[in-house]
Amino acid sequence: MYPCHFHHKRAVDVVCRHGPARVLELVQLGADFTRNRDGSLHLTREGGHSGRRIVHAADLTGAEIERALLAAARATGNVEFFEHHLAVDLVTDEVGGAPHCFGVDVLDTRSNTACRFLSLATMLASGGAGQVYPNTTNPHVATGDGIAMAYRAGAAVSNMEFVQFHPTALFSKKGAGGGGGGGEAGRVFLISEAVRGEGGVLLNSRGERFMASYDDRLELAPRDVVARAIQDQMMSHASDHVWLDISHKPARDVLSHFPNIAARCKEDGIDITRDPIPVLPAQHYTCGGVATGLRGETGVQGLYACGEVACSGLHGANRLASNSLLEGLVFADRAAGPSVAHAEYALRHCGGELRRAATAAPAGAGAAAAAATAPAEWAAGRRGELQALMWRAAGIVRREAALAAALARVEELSAEAAAAAARHGVSAPLVELSNLLTCARLILSCALQRKESRGGHFSPDYPGLDPEARPSLVALPPRRVGTNGGVGQGAGDDARTGAGAGAGARGAAGGGAPGSPKKRAKRPAAAPAPAAQREAAHREMAVRSTPRDQE
Ligand SMILES: Cc1cc2nc3c(=O)[nH]c(=O)nc-3n(C[C@H](O)[C@H](O)[C@H](O)COP(=O)(O)OP(=O)(O)OC[C@H]3O[C@@H](n4cnc5c(N)ncnc54)[C@H](O)[C@@H]3O)c2cc1C
């Protein structure tokens, strides 16, 4: 069931079987993928791949998929888009002894007004938590909001210690990222692995090719191996970057494969057809996330997750290049049918809970008044401190003592953030800071529990693989669910609230409606617990390693 990298065999099988149909569906929707001269789809190859298998749109595949899907969604005419709306917390209640999601509280970030979106089925697709780190290829909004919200609502979260660091982000002279990478507003520019796939070689500051000393697969070794090798070379030669050179390939091929990379490098005065590109590793992908089953179901009834926010088991301890867009497509499709079935169930059986959710005030009510005093600068400073701390302690190489010290500091920062939220109310900077702190705590706790090195978690204290080790699974103790600002929940001391970790995550396996419509007696929704109590709840966070259920 768990080969050395923790891939969940059934999830891998599902993606392999259903992936091609999803790609063809995108083509039918108008996605403009790169083609060979004969009109067939061009396939590229990246790190860890044994052959060419990646359909792509030059070097902007994700952007092209997003463009095609947005156009298709707009064309239906029955999809409403709410831009500049920040999801703050899930609306949850208890049905049949298990947590159940009835929508989401959001903050309109332009007017700073809070409102509640009720829903019969809710899909989280909020991406990863790259902003936990200073050097990341992820956008400024990748603050792990969905992971933190689902965790607060009682869903299990899995494999958070497995963070993928991409070996080659552009070392830019423009601006300064906290870790030295530079780049636009909180993110560094990715130099796609396809550059190495198409023959690019890595050189150290002395101009020597070095990957042969680390792995037989040279530049196409898996990302964790290449990222560690680059970090080692940078430290050995006291340099802040290495070089990626593809200038030996025909200029016409390079420019047609990598037009976007060529254009971005040109802004820094680099002609990639002639010059090597200065690169360094950067956080790139959150392998862990909300634990989901094969239909996108989570440990909270009515809550589904797909894409980077989820941990379906496909990526195991280290995602293979270009598997994530496909994973999102496959599991979003698979969750659609069950979520409709669940909505029908909720409509029939959850009228009382829905009425209660409709009458309670949304999280963040009074945000407009709070906005005037929102400590944005303070939150930005704490966010920067957190990022630098995580890069040092929970970056490419992790030491146990540093992880423990970082966790202690993150606890302090979390207490400060909770106090600030209690004083100033809900605001976007505080919501994001609080979610980043929750994700950091999950990463550090899981990393401390792991007494081995595997995939995206490397510790010189435990350099080998432990054959007995299991994926990690974390959940708030049931009686504490919803105590970190959760909406529509009690003060969190009721043992009936919440489904626990693994059992909850599998409770809706197959995506059907919950088995028992029996409801327990309800008490009225109470105010969120005081900050100190919420903090205590987090400290009690249960971290354990549990084998995934057979599916
Ligand atoms: C530079 C780069 C290149 C990549 N290239 C590839 C590739 O070639 N192939 C591949 O397979 N993968 C690639 N990846 C990874 C892949 O792009 C991501 O894993 C994937 O886009 C995740 O999709 P998603 O829909 O889950 O989340 P995202 O694409 O991150 O979208 C999440 C959305 O949720 C919104 N959101 C977040 N929080 C909230 C909130 N609280 N309220 C409201 N909205 C919110 C965000 O604004 C965003 O619109 C790349 C990643 C990066 C950063």
How would you portray this structure in words?
This protein is an alpha+beta fold and 551 residues long. Among the domains are: 114 residues, Flavocytochrome C3, Chain A, domain 1 (Alpha-Beta Complex); 99 residues, Fumarate reductase/succinate dehydrogenase flavoprotein-like, C-terminal domain (Methane Monooxygenase Hydroxylase, Chain G, domain 1, Up-down Bundle). It has 15 helices and 16 strands. Strand 4 and strand 5 form a beta hairpin. The longest helix has 26 residues. The C terminus is likely disordered. The site of flavin-adenine dinucleotide (FAD) has 22 residues, from helix 2, strand 3 and helix 8.
What are the salient characteristics of this protein?
binds flavin-adenine dinucleotide; disordered C terminus; Methane Monooxygenase Hydroxylase, Chain G, domain 1; 551 residues; single chain; 4-stranded antiparallel β-sheet; 5-stranded mixed β-sheet; Fum_Rdtase/Succ_DH_flav-like_C; FAD-dep_OxRdtase_2_FAD-bd; Flavocytochrome C3, Chain A, domain 1; 15 helices
Question: TL;DR?
Answer:
With 551 residues, the chain is an alpha+beta fold. Helices cover 37% and strands 14% of the residues. Among the domains are: 114 residues, Alpha-Beta Complex (Flavocytochrome C3, Chain A, domain 1), CATH 3.90.700.10; 99 residues, Fumarate reductase/succinate dehydrogenase flavoprotein-like, C-terminal domain (Methane Monooxygenase Hydroxylase, Chain G, domain 1).
